[in-house]
Write a sequence for this structure.
């Protein structure tokens, strides 16, 4: 995707000492960056605050990540917002998150218009509170005409559930005689995933230092480059995006082949 060079240079003009825009190659920006936004709770606890304050602070980082991704010309930014396992959290934290998702989306609609961002969700949305679901639908409707970056939010998402669901869909298609089992390819299978139509992530960023995938995009991350930073999500800034891209650009992607 194209970027506006003037806006980009201006946006990254206040560089810290260790990283600047000139450290990355604008010709090889990843098309799809995905983020596991982790560390909100620890960020808050370290400050003597309730965990929910970490999620509220995390909204600001997310806003910055969206703007940064648009400035850099990404095609897709996706984020892991709520997993199928996150329901196990204290009820007041789950309630706050559901409220925060809905409120943030409404509040940020002007940003999405201004930046030509198209929204997308992936996960089992049926299980979400009605108000959250309705707000998501409104976000989808109101950004459907936008033609710029896709901002995809994983909500009530779990990769094993997604893969199981896809396998069941496909099995039904085969049982009904609509698909021949012998001819099924990986790209046929992908059509049944929540993420159908999105490119696979080129780069996965995980904040807060945890070295695991946490049931996130197990199929789609097959050849993604992984970048883990110790930074907690609420402290993650546009400069951390540049650091991650710089690291990514130093990798040699072979997709199982040789160079
Ligand atoms: C992980 O940190 C974060 C989440 C489960 C929620 C992410 C939500 C936000 C960033 C809020 C805004 C999101 C949207 C889509 C508006 P954690 O709570 O697991 O942190 P911990 O590992 O330190 O406990």
């Amino acid at each position: 995707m194209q970027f506006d060079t003037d806006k980009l240079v201006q946006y990254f003009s206040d560089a810290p000492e260790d990283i600047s825009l000139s450290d990355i190659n604008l010709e090889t920006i990843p098309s799809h960056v995905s983020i596991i936004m982790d560390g909100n709770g620890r960020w808050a606890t370290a400050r003597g605050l309730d965990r929910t304050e970490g999620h509220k602070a995390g909204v600001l980082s997310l806003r910055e990540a969206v703007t940064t991704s648009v400035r850099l010309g990404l095609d897709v930014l996706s984020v892991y917002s709520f997993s199928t396992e996150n329901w196990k959290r204290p009820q007041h934290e789950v309630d706050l998150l559901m409220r925060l998702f809905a409120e943030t989306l409404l509040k940020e609609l002007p940003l999405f218009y201004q930046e030509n961002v198209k929204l997308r969700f992936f996960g089992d949305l049926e299980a979400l509170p009605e108000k959250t679901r309705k707000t998501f639908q409104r976000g989808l409707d109101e950004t459907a005409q936008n033609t710029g970056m896709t901002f995809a939010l994983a909500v009530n998402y779990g990769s094993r559930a997604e893969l199981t669901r896809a396998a069941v869909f496909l099995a039904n298609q085969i049982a009904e005689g609509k698909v021949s089992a012998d001819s099924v390819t990986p790209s046929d299978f992908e059509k049944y995933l929540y993420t159908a139509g999105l490119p696979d992530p080129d780069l996965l960023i995980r904040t807060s230092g945890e070295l695991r995938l946490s049931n996130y995009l197990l199929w789609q991350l097959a050849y993604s480059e992984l970048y883990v930073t110790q930074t907690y999500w609420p402290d993650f800034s546009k400069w951390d995006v540049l650091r991650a891209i710089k690291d990514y650009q130093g990798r040699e992607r072979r997709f199982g082949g040789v160079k």
Notes: Residues 37-42, 55, 58-59, 62, 81, 86, 97, 100-101, 104, 153, 233 surround farnesyl diphosphate (CB under 6 Å).
